[in-house]
Specification:
Helix content is 56%, strand content 3%. The chain has helices at residues 37-43, 46-55, 61-73, 79-85, 94-107, 117-142, 156-165, 171-184, 191-201, 206-218, 225-233, 239-251, 271-284, 290-305, 312-322, 329-350, and strands at 21-24, 29-32, 35-36. The two termini are 32 Å apart. The structure holds coenzyme A (COA).
């Protein structure tokens, strides 16, 4: 085993081929099935992008209408999940709620372990419609408010605002949210997507793969970073305080959440688009000193570490200004990334090989078992 090269964290390992998306760190671009993601945010909505990821092409007008009708047909919160939600502690973390809810959807689906492509797409369509309803219902219970039923006239982005706040905000805010969903939708073999592919590679079902992926996304080195960004920004009062805070955190050897990326080393290509969306939200909602602190943190992290922000940095502040509670940021990421996970589940299954790496053993040499307990 001595000659085995260890790729800790699988850094630099190409684990499989994919036709879903590609990140070009040099060209600073991300494309979904060949389309630049920035262009998709300008000209398409989230439902178009989900169709692109799941079916391989943007929908025609007829396909779009049919797809949207299928999603909206699943809008009302499932009664079994609704009943379960009423039993959970109101202070349960929304990511734990989403993870468990996905599993419960599987428990109540008689075809839960079907691997058929059409059945999987139907299950995925239902999850796409239901996860926002779960997040909104739990959030309203946390606040002691009654749930707001879905509105089938609204798309996924606007309907989420409707169920969460009981109203749909200015179109610029809905558009900014839609932009974030499109940017978060897919990102190649990131940790949660790879988790979904590992589970799928054992020929396990969609619900198991998505439940595991939600668990992987929760961690602060992955999706949890958008929440951590807001916890940081909310402690800062002005530019000077922001600079001091970063200096102290770096002196303690801490990581600044929302900065750095495993693949992008010269900046995350999604950030400029999300920053424009953030500024559109800030124009509608008073950001107070937050924008100033946001800029100061960015400046000092670059000065000290030459690190640039990733998507979680502008998205975290944008979600805060939209009015969402910080604990909801990563569940919103789930709403979006479900689309990418499903595309990868289907792709993995279509040309499956069990994902099972090796390990270089560094434990004790072989030794006899003592005959008695000492
Ligand atoms: N803050 C401070 N230092 C950071 C950093 C950050 N956010 N991200 C990386 N670094 C530093 C590391 O400490 C390390 O420094 P060293 O070589 O002096 O030890 C160096 O940069 C390389 O870090 P490494 O962990 O090897 O890079 P990676 O590619 O494995 O890490 C992340 C990628 C995303 C895990 C990492 O950048 C990070 O932890 N970011 C914060 C969490 C985050 O925003 N996650 C969302 C990602 S989209």
């Amino acid at each position: 085993m001595d000659d085995q090269q260890v790729h800790k964290g699988l850094v630099g390992v190409v684990a499989d081929t994919t036709t879903i998306s590609t990140i070009d760190p040099q060209g600073n671009s991300l494309t979904y099935r060949g389309y630049r993601v920035e262009e998709l945010t300008e000209h398409r909505d989230f439902e178009d992008v989900v169709h692109l990821l799941w079916y391989g092409e943007l929908p025609t007008a007829g396909e779009y209408d049919a797809f949207v009708a299928r999603i909206r047909g699943y809008y009302g919160l499932d009664p079994a999940v609704d009943a379960w939600l009423r039993t959970v502690p109101v202070d349960a973390h929304p990511m734990d709620i989403v993870r468990t809810a996905v599993s419960i959807f599987g428990v109540h689906d008689p075809r839960h372990s079907a691997l058929d492509r059409d059945v999987t797409l139907e299950q995925a369509t239902r999850l796409l419609a239901q996860i926002p309803a779960v997040i909104a219902a739990h959030q309203r219970r946390r606040k002691g408010e009654t749930t707001v039923p879905a509105n089938r006239e609204l798309g996924l982005a606007a309907n989420f605002f409707h169920m969460y706040f009981g109203e749909v905000p200015h179109p610029d805010i809905v558009r900014a949210f839609e932009t974030s969903l499109i940017l978060y939708a897919e990102h190649s073999f990131n940790a949660s997507t790879f988790t979904a592919r590992v589970v799928t590679s054992t020929l396990s079902d969609l619900y198991s793969a998505i439940t595991a992926a939600v668990g992987a996304l929760k961690g602060p080195l992955h999706g949890g970073a958008n929440e951590a960004v807001m916890h940081m920004l909310s402690q800062l009062s002005d530019r000077e305080a922001a600079r001091r805070w970063v200096d102290n955190a770096l002196a303690r050897g801490e990581r600044i959440m929302g900065f750095g990326h495993r693949v992008y080393k010269n900046g995350d290509s999604r950030v400029p688009t999300m920053e424009r969306a953030l500024r559109a939200v800030a124009a509608q909602r008073d950001p107070g000193p937050l924008l100033e602190c946001y800029e100061a943190v960015q400046e000092v992290v670059y000065e000290r570490k030459k690190l640039r922000p990733n998507l979680d940095y502008p998205a975290g502040l944008a979600y805060h200004l939209m009015g969402f509670d910080t604990e909801i940021f990563t569940p919103i990421f789930v709403m979006a990334r479900l689309s990418g996970w499903v595309a990868h589940v289907l792709e993995q299954r279509a040309a499956n090989a069990l994902i099972r790496p090796l390990a270089a053993y560094t434990g004790p040499s072989p030794r006899p078992v003592p005959l008695e307990r000492r």
